[in-house]
Design goal:
Beta-Lactamase; 543 residues; alpha+beta
Length: 543
């Protein structure tokens, strides 16, 4: 999944406008895709959605700063950050210990691939809200997420789970996008299917290309890797009677099986579903190298996790609707009694009703908390995360990333950077950061410790925490180094020096785009200092 180069093996009907290969694709197919892409771009949601997906997916190619880059990308979106933290603190991630309050901690505990897949899923959800046809979109989102979770579970090779998850999530991307951007056409396709036509034939009649070709064309336009595009393309014919020797082909059948199972759950009530799942499991078991009972059990587990996910994300669906079936746990027949004793089955209406309001959002009538109260809450929970990570012997970079993230979120900063002493001991260099252009700005930080008399050098050498509320004040501006005034010139910034045995070790820098935007009361100031001390403790522990 590291390559973003379009794959020459993708079906011809999925060739994006401007691509040379069109063998086997009707001319009107490519033209229709171009028209649909233009129509989608005219709606403001499409560019934001595609850019977010491309950025998150592109992180797969980075092995050096992948964790920091992913954390930074997620933190750009406050709503995404809150939903992700609610999700990782839900029951399905109980193994992570609970009480996770920073994205950095979530990444370190759940893993890069797991967090990236969750973020990618949530990006789709974020752009499907507040539409007249939102209920239909939520149904399709839940169906895709169930298929993705099931595909990951059915992988017999753990490292393939990530690829299977994304492939299953996007296999019906065409249907999802049509429902979002082309609701009238999508409704006509659904009506034709209800009248007895196949979905592929109905979509071809209405859109002049089927949903698979639409999804693959958009996937190529987004730059999704070739292996994911292959998984989005459904294999033809009946499932093989033995597991394919080719791993890529085996994964294609696995992704198809997961989506077919999700379709079955959506289409059948609880009486009709068990025999349908049994037949489906028997049909695919040999090609997956699994027994049918395991496949059925995996479907139940995936539904159980989806119910927890829906609850954590506050996804509201109509009680007893097809969407409610997706997130209702149905224990296996032979284990129903035992499962009922150990884990009571909750009716879909009880599980999904009452989700209209998110616990993390304030009541409309509630008084807004003060900025200090918000900062204290975020700083306190962040400090708990760092404390736990230190107790667990967490990696130095992971701990430092948690410190930066806590400051970034609690103080409402534009960016937060960490500078560390270089091998010569003569200067501090920017090493990592979060926020707006953080990586680029960090490279500009080269702070000499010897022979300099500017504000940064004095703060670092003396170890004095310093808040500059207005950098344009004459007594401040004249003390700032020329490189800072010319290249960065933040109107308000905070400097937290790190010292070890009385010698400069590093510097935490945080800034805002508005003068006076950082105002620390007594309690948040004490917590900020505690957080800085935890960063120093992490260095001591790592030595």
């Amino acid at each position: 999944m590291s390559s973003n180069t379009p794959d020459a093996t993708a079906p011809a009907a999925a060739v994006a406008p401007g691509d040379a290969g069109t063998d086997g694709a009707p001319p009107e197919g490519a033209g229709t895709l171009a028209d649909l892409l233009r129509r989608m771009r005219h709606q403001t949601d499409f560019p934001a959605m595609s850019e977010s997906i491309v950025r998150v997916q592109a992180l797969a190619s980075s092995e050096t700063e992948s964790l920091n880059s992913l954390t930074n990308e997620i933190l750009k979106d406050v709503a995404l950050t809150q939903k992700l933290l609610r999700l990782v603190n839900s029951a399905q991630f109980a193994h992570a210990g609970g009480g996770i309050s920073t994205v950095s901690r979530a990444v370190s505990l759940i893993g890069f691939a797991g967090i990236r897949n969750l973020a990618l899923s949530l990006l789709l959800l974020e752009h499907m809200q507040d539409k007249a046809h939102a209920q239909q979109l939520r149904t399709e989102f839940l169906r895709s997420l169930l298929a993705a979770s099931l595909a990951s579970d059915l992988c017999t090779v753990v490292r393939e789970g990530e690829e299977a998850f994304i492939g299953a999530l996007f296999q019906n991307l065409g249907r999802m996008l049509a429902g979002f951007y082309l609701p009238d056409e999508a409704r006509r396709v659904r009506d034709a299917v209800a009248a007895g036509e196949t979905e592929a034939a109905a979509a071809l009649k209405v859109l002049r290309l089927d949903y698979e070709a639409l999804g693959l064309g958009v996937a190529r336009a987004w730059g999704l890797p070739g292996p994911i595009q292959r998984l989005m393309s459904r294999p033809a014919g009946r499932p093989p009677l033995r597991m394919p020797a080719d791993n890529a082909e085996r994964l294609r059948w696995l992704v198809l099986a997961a989506n077919d199972a999700a379709d079955a759950v959506l289409a059948h009530d609880e009486k009709a579903l068990p025999p349908k799942l049994e037949r489906l499991a028997q049909q695919y078991a040999a090609s997956l190298g699994l027994d049918a009972e395991h496949v059925v059990h995996s479907v139940h587990q995936a539904r159980d996790r989806l119910a927890q996910t829906a609850e954590a994300l506050g996804i509201v669906v109509l009680p007893k609707s097809p969407a409610a079936r997706l997130a209702q746990r149905l224990p296996p027949k032979d284990a129903a009694a035992q499962e009922g004793a150990d884990h009571p089955v909750v009716d879909a209406q009880d599980t999904l009703g009452g989700l209209a309001l998110s616990a993390s959002e304030p009541e409309p009538q509630a008084a807004a908390p003060t900025a200090d109260a918000i900062a204290v809450g975020l700083l306190s929970t962040g400090i708990q995360d760092v404390t736990q990570a230190l107790a667990d012997g967490g990696a130095l970079n992971d701990v430092l990333r948690m410190v930066l993230e806590t400051l970034f979120r609690s103080l409402g900063c534009r960016r937060v950077l960490l500078c560390l002493r270089d091998a010569s001991g003569q200067q501090l260099l920017g090493r990592m950061g979060l926020g707006e252009d953080a990586t680029d700005v960090a490279r500009r930080f080269k702070l000499p410790l010897q022979g300099a008399n500017d504000l940064f050098a004095l703060v670092c050498n003396k170890g004095v925490d310093t808040l500059i509320s207005d950098a344009s004040a004459p007594n401040v501006a004249q003390r700032l180094p020329a490189w800072y005034r010319e290249q960065i010139a933040a109107p308000c910034f905070l400097l937290l020096p790190l010292q070890l045995k009385g010698a400069p070790l590093g510097l935490i820098y945080a800034d805002t785009a508005t003068a006076g935007a950082i105002a620390l009361g007594e309690q948040p100031l004490a917590l900020v200092k505690t957080l800085r001390n935890q960063a120093v403790m992490a260095f001591r522990q790592a030595r």
